Amino acid sequence: MKALVKIGGTLLDTPESRQRLAAESTEVSRQGHRLVVVHGGGKQMTRFLEERGVESRFVNGLRVTTPQILDAVLKVFAGTVNHELVSALVAAGCPAVGLTGIDASLTEAEQMDPALGAVGRLVQTNPRLLEVLIEGGFLPVVACVAGDRRGNIYNVNADQMAAGCAVAYGARALIFLTDVAGVLDAGKRVLPELTLSQADDMISEGVATGGMQAKLIAAKEALQAGVAEVIIAAGKVPGAIGRIISGQGEGTRLIRSAATGSVAPAGAGAGLSEK
Fold first, then answer.
1. Is there a domain that residue 210 lies in?
2. How far apart are CA 76 and CA 61, in angstroms?
3. Are 253 and 265 in contact (CB under 8 A)?
4. CATH number at residue 216
5. What is the pLDDT of residue 266?
């Protein structure tokens, strides 16, 4: 099965967590699943900037990206975070390759809003590089940086990067691994299943905000563009990747609508185990 796993930066902030997630990803790949990993790194970015006395400013959850901060984006996202994860995967026995969206025009972006600086919106994704690497037995690890045909570089929201790559790659499953157990309702209970209309309501009512709002928007785009399954689940739980891939009920499963869910509920047999 083709699957794309997006790993939040918080989950990659300690060697122990990186090594565990690398081992789980390696095991899933060895089972024959064709995996792509996209990662964030917001926590590491904020710390990097604070250590240098640079203030982070956000507008609607997006980090305003000045030339100075774009330089840090390349150092942190495409540099430290990407290479630490790739190194952990290699140590686990997986031939991982670190990439950004700039490589071979994997993802092309345009400026989202001049007020945000070099924050990009994806406009095109070319999965050929991913396909070549996976056919060669490699696991692509993509940092959330994109470019355009004029040589500009953009900081792209990692959830949007994951959704765009999942659609272009033809992933059957898009898995968001985060630091919460799933999508929480107003009573802080994990919702096992969520339709797109319900997700819209959660956003409009202010129940889903910040990072979760971004994930729901990205999930909606992916489902509407043909991805069969989107799961938002806790990455801190050991073995989560394997259980999700095998169709067990982890986190929140998003479907297009209650009447036209793309696949059977997690754990119901159809699961995610198709290859």
1. yes
2. 19
3. yes
4. 3.40.1160.10
5. 34
Q: What is the mean pLDDT of each run of 10 residues along the chain (275 residues)?
A: 96 97 97 96 95 91 94 98 98 98 97 97 96 97 97 97 97 95 92 93 89 92 94 94 88 79 36 42
* Distance separating alpha carbons of residues 137 and 167, to the nearest angstrom: 21
Nearest Cα residue to 23 out of 79, 78, 71, 94? 94
> Is the residue at 263 inside a domain?
no
pLDDT at position 258: 66
Tokens of 211: 């990072």
As beta bridge partners, residue 233 has 177
- What was the pLDDT predicted at 259? 54
Domain region containing 225: 2-255
Check residue 61 and give its pLDDT. Answer: 79
Look up residue 152 and give its DSSP letter.
-
- Sorted by sequence, the CB contacts under 8 Å of residue 262 that are 6+ apart come out as 223, 228, 229, 255, 256
Question: Is there a domain that residue 274 lies in?
Answer: no
Alpha-carbon distance 226 to 61, whole Å? 26
User: Tokens at residue 40, please?
Assistant: 């964030």
> What count of Cα atoms within 13 Å lies in the side-chain half-sphere of residue 271?
16
Distance in angstroms (rounded) separating the CA atoms of residues 170 and 228: 10
- Return phi, psi of residue 216, to 5°: -65, -40
Q: Give kind and range of the element (H or E) at residue 173.
A: strand 173-178
Both structure tokens of 151:
């040589």
pTM: 0.91
Residue 74's Cβ-side half-sphere holds a number of Cα atoms within 13 Å equal to 12
Residue type, 219: A
Q: Which helix (H) or strand (E) holds 200?
A: helix 196-204
How deeply is 249 buried, as exposed, middle or buried, from its count of CB atoms within 10 A (0-12, 13-18, 19+)?
Answer: middle
98 is written with which tokens?
């670190």
Quickly count: other Cβ atoms within 10 Å of residue 16's Cβ.
Answer: 8
